TrEMBL record:
One of its GO terms (biological process) is response to stress. This is MarR-type transcriptional regulator. One of its GO terms (molecular function) is DNA-binding transcription factor activity. Residues 159-203 are annotated as: Disordered. Residues 1-149 form the HTH marR-type domain. Residues 173-183 have a biased composition (Basic and acidic residues). Pfam families: MarR_2. InterPro entries: HTH_MarR-typ, MarR/SlyA-like, WH-like_DNA-bd_sf, WH_DNA-bd_sf. PROSITE patterns: HTH_MARR_2 (PS50995).
Amino acid sequence: MVIGNADGGHAQTWLKPSLEIRAVHHLIARYWNVVTPPESTGSGTNMPIILYLHDHRNEDVFQYDIERAFSITRSTASRVLALMEKKGLITRTGVQWDARVRKIELTPAAGGIVEELQRRSRQLERTLFEGFSDDEQRRFLTDLERMKANLYATGLVGRETSGCASAQPQGDSKGREDGDRAPTHVAPAGPCPQRPSEPDEAV
């Protein structure tokens, strides 16, 4: 094991993988903020969400989808989406099968900057993978997925609404709150275990 065993070593050595990932995350956010024009209503936080909504523009997208796509908590997603709505980047409209669930769509204003955001996003990806072979890029992305899976496997973070939520068939609003996707099947009923609230995080 590269980082040693649990009986020795300095804290910095033990935390190095997570510290490096966090550092890259913050550098990416800073990069987005630098390349964003001052007059733009976009930001390093909501640009990825704009691109996600554009990529899924032919589907119904709800807050739950944003939470899962970006591995963020419900409170963080709610806060970010509220700010995006205030800036005129998205609309949230009700659906017939549940008054508490709102579909999220880009406004024409946000749609007008998608092409530029895509160009900047491609440039960022090229910068991140400069000097990486195709195999190295694929391996890196695979390793990130494995790390995410390891964290999910602890049962302490993420995916609280998949598997333990008392879902109802589509058309029945019982058991869902604003932001949840309407399930297309009946999931096992029963209360979810209570967990401590997770802190807000950046997208």
